[in-house]
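TA notes, week 10

Several of you asked for a full example with nothing omitted. So below is the full record: structure tokens for the whole chain, then the designed sequence directly under it. When grading your own attempts, check the secondary structure regions first.
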């Protein structure tokens, strides 16, 4: 059953990238990338490892600066922001890391409280508790609130990492290889959670992956990255309805039994 996604607004690009280049010495990673991400949609950036997918989202979040081109996020040109303005913008961008990036010495409650107390001033203890409990409920792990990260499975850690990102109510979510290292069942659960986050919070998201199942389940649009450029952009069906050899070989490699 197709979900109602009327909250997606294709008249409003929250991320606008034009003619983006990024190199590291003689390694030319991004070579003239164009991409729009619209309000409320999930865009999957798909490609093999080492094709520049993670570099792209690091530039979007201001962790790397472009060599050339325009990167506009929520109406701000990334390369024109000073440190204070960049920090303010990053609070509106949630970054879900491959390894979940939880603090091992903190309980799950403390992990979730940390960004909230650090960035949102003058919250009462009751308000903090409410936010923590709400976001834990949204990822289906209320029972883990007093546990340590070491007591959780890989999939649970991934969910808690997403919850910690959501607690600041970001407008944009960046997921870096969300299903990497997970078994097939847990991968499906994470894919479904990404869709639930979109439906519940109406976030705009970029999902970096080389996992075609993840791309098919989560992506409203797919942008396929080859050799530093987007080869095809469209729905999953539009991207793979082609005889282009590089696209077909990528598909066949992923879905060969």
């Amino acid at each position: 059953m197709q979900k109602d996604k009327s909250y997606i607004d294709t008249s409003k690009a929250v991320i606008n990238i034009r003619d983006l280049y990024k190199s590291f010495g003689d390694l030319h990673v991004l070579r003239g990338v164009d991409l729009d991400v619209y309000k409320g949609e999930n865009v999957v950036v798909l490609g093999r490892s080492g094709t520049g997918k993670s570099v792209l989202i690091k530039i979007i979040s201001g962790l790397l600066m472009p060599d050339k081109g325009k990167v506009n996020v929520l109406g701000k040109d990334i390369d024109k922001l000073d440190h204070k303005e960049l920090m303010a913008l990053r609070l509106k961008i949630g970054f879900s890391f491959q390894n979940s990036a939880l603090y091992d010495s903190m309980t799950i409650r403390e992990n979730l409280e940390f960004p909230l107390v650090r960035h949102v001033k003058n919250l009462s203890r009751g308000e903090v508790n409410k936010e923590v409990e709400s976001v834990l409920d949204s990822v289906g792990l209320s029972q883990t609130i007093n546990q340590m990260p070491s007591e959780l499975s890989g999939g649970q850690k991934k969910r808690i990492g997403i919850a910690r990102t959501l607690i600041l109510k970001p407008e944009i979510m960046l997921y870096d290889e969300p299903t990497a290292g997970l078994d097939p069942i847990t991968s499906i659960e994470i894919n479904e959670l990404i869709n639930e986050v979109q439906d519940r919070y109406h976030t705009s998201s970029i999902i970096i992956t080389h996992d075609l199942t993840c791309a098919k389940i989560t992506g409203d649009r797919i942008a396929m990255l080859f050799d530093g450029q987007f080869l095809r952009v469209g729905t999953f069906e539009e991207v793979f309805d082609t005889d282009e050899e590089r696209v077909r070989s990528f598909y066949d490699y992923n879905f060969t039994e």
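The two ends are 27 Å apart (CA to CA). Use that as a sanity check on your answer.
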